[in-house]
Amino acid sequence: MADLTTGTLGDTLRRNGVSRRGFLKFCTATASMMALPPSMVPVLAAALDNAQRPSVIWLSFQECTGCTESLTRSHTPTLESLIFDHISLDYHHTLQVASGHAAEAAREAAMQASAGKYLLVVDGSIPLGNPGFSTIAGVSNLQILEETAAGAAAVIAMGSCAAFGGLPKADPNPTGAVAVRDIVTDKPVINVSGCPPIPVVITGVLAHYLTFGTLPELDQYSRPKAFYGTSIHDRCYRRPFYDKGLFANTFDDEGAKKGWCLYKLGCKGPMTYNACATVKWNEGTSWPVESGHGCLGCSQPDFWDAGGFYNALSIPVGDISRTASYAVAAGVALGAAAAGINRKTKTEANRQHSTVTVDDLEKTS
Ligand code: SF4
Ligand code: SF4
Predict the structure, then answer these.
(1) Staple 241 to which of 11, 141, 236, 260, CB 3.0 to 4.6 Å?
(2) Helix (H) or strand (E) holding 41
(3) What is the model's pTM?
(4) CA 194 / ligand 2 centre spacing (Å)
């Protein structure tokens, strides 16, 4: 187990050869992502430089390990990964060296040593159908979560399974899976949704916590607004094609080759709030829509039950030119379909996995 009490983040970064210039560049980018004014960059830099190692306990329940993969996968050490390393982990099912009694003893020791101050990160959903569906060292996920959350300063629900129930909760939810927020009701719970979540988002949440000692502003689903405040569609570089009614109809037609909008191929970007379109993946290399595939909506609640990945949910399947005119007339960020459909109709359509047509737009606009 790492020593959690010595060394600042600045020490860690310097030991790993991060230059002052590189560090400030990171602080500027992080402040920008967190929607902080430029004047906050020196504050962020000073706070991160002097930040002590916070104690973090990471629990994994019904999950696929994709969230941990996402956060730790890096071929070269980046500032993000170094910050992630810096927080260290008193306990992490997947990453820790210790096992068996030693591992559980480490969790208990960390809980005692930093009572009321440690951050609890959880990935995976919690099965309530039967305590035996998922256990660690013979103890049910529910019991471990309740015990560990009791002494935490805050809980980060990492990934859509912990945030919303995710794949285990998908219909028919055989294990009775629930989200962290369904269990932990007396502590701040911050949902970092995504399947998996973007690594830099968790880094940003941690940077905010280390800098201000508070959690960032959250949206209606308890997600940090800085990263989940705008839809994929609002920031998508293919949006101009959408607005002009230029859509790919298949993955290999002329429209696809020209990079036209993937809405008709099932893109859920208009209903999905995440930072993929700006932060991208693999250290800013690309993101799904840029590689030619529509957004699956993975950061939204119950996205597994929101229809087939390739079914266009709210796509106007009638006359595209009429569709485009709705977008222009409405002039709102959600785009033509969402603009023309009242909220109730759209929500119901999503729930029923049904397609919304141009006729529906006319009925409800
Ligand atoms: S529908 Fe998808 S591909 Fe088209 S503009 Fe919106 S997010 Fe981009
Ligand atoms: S583009 Fe959509 S489905 Fe893909 S990772 Fe981002 S939010 Fe999830």
Answers:
(1) 260
(2) helix 41-50
(3) 0.78
(4) 7
CA 249 to chain centre: 29
Domains of the chain by range and CATH?
A: 9-228 (3.40.50.700), 232-364 (4.10.480.10)
Ligand 2 in reach of 349 Cβ (< 6 A): no
The pLDDT tens digits of the residues spanning 203-228 come to 778 778 877 878 889 999 999 998 99
Question: What residue type is 252 in one-letter code?
Answer: D
Q: DSSP states of 240-304 as a string?
A: HHHHTT-B-SSTTSHHHHTT-B-GGGT--GGG-B-SHHHH-BTTTTB-GGGGT-----TTSTTGG
**Residue 91 buriedness (CB in 10 A; 0-12 / 13-18 / 19+):** buried
Dihedrals phi, psi of 286, to nearest 5 degrees = -165, -175
pLDDT one-digit tens code per residue, 310-323: 988 654 433 444 44
- Give the ligand at the shortest distance from the Cα of 269: 1
* Residue-wise pLDDT tens digits, 58-84: 899 999 988 888 776 643 445 555 555
